[in-house]
Amino acid sequence: MVVATGSATHTGLRRTLNEDAFLAESPVFLVADGMGGHEAGERASAAVVAEFRHLVDRPALVLDDVRAALARARHAVEALSSLDSARAGTTLSGLFLTAVDGMAYWLAVNIGDSRTYRLSGGVLEQISVDHSVVQELIDSGELSAEAAVSDTRRNIITRAIGAGSVDDADYWMFPAELGDRMLICSDGLSSEVIDGRIRELLATTGDPQVAADLLIESAIDGGGRDNITVVVLDAISVASRAGGTWTSDDSDIDADTRPREAAPGGIR
Ligand code: MG
Fold it and tell me: What confidence tens digit (pLDDT) does each residue in 180-233 have?
């Protein structure tokens, strides 16, 4: 699979430090949102990126590679906590390009409340599930999704790398399709910009870097109360089951100008 990418990060308007970090080098695409006082969060998210950077340019990446990198990242973050007694921790959400029987697949990983979305056929779907108190309350029926947006507990996460958490990440694999547009972001985007607006920006902007910049701008306009990080990736060439490769050149529309109309049903 070949992807075109755009990425951007911003400290936002209220914070003095940017504790988010990201990596967008094939086949590794991820966002980490660090937490903990005294620069611990910044160091935690950077440590995770440094560990996953070892997977860049690795051909034929498999789930075990990602699991092993996550285990090493966890050790690195826990070592930070024991060094300076600050409880360093970080989220991790991301995508890895992989293949099964010659077919291109996305391998998604998530721990915490950074998010991974997929825009396909004009429909935006959040494919990661937040590990957060608010998500648990929604799942148990105690809180509506509408009320969750302004709930005071919305920043409390239930899993992390470090920060005393021992729970594992979630992993998913699903076939990549030509034209898939994926978004990985920290909560500085998703808590400032509603999904409908995110969908609109992703669906109407061709170039992934322009889309990334517009998403950041939109979060700043929304208040910019947190660090904001976005990685946008477009599947522009995808290996098919028959052994052939579909690329955007095979279709009669250009990848950068392809109209992305809303599908019936809208956001799922
Ligand atoms: Mg954040």
Answer: 999 999 999 999 999 999 999 999 999 999 999 999 999 999 999 999 999 999
The reported pTM is 0.89
For residue 1, count CB atoms less than 10 angstroms from its CB and return exposed for 0-12, middle for 13-18, buried for 19 or more.
Answer: buried
Question: How far is CA 243 from its chain centroid?
Answer: 29
Burial class (CB within 10 angstroms; exposed 0-12, middle 13-18, buried 19+) of 141: exposed
Ligand 1 center to 205 CA (angstroms): 25
- 83: phi then psi, degrees, rounded to nearest 5: -70, -50
CA dist 148 and 194 (Å) reads 12
CA 248 / ligand 1 centre spacing (Å) = 34
Distance 229 CA to ligand 1 centre (A): 9
- What lies within 8 Å, CB to CB, of 85 at 6+ separation is none
Give distance in angstroms: CA of 90 to centre of ligand 1.
9
Q: For the chain, report the end-to-end CA distance as a whole number of angstroms.
A: 26
Pairing of strands 2-10, 20-25: unpaired
Whole-number Å distance, alpha carbon 173 to ligand 1 midpoint, is 25
Q: Alpha-carbon distance 148 to 198, whole Å?
A: 18
DSSP 130-198: --BHHHHHHHTTSS-HHHHTT-TTTT-BS--EETTB-PPPEEEEEE--TT-EEEEE-HHHHTTS-HHHH
**Which residue reads 């098919």 in tokens?**
240
8 A C-beta contact, residue 266 and residue 210:
no
The segments of the chain whose pLDDT lies below 50 read 249-268
Pairwise CA distance, residues 48 & 71, whole Å = 10
Ligand 1 center to residue 216 CA distance, Å?
13
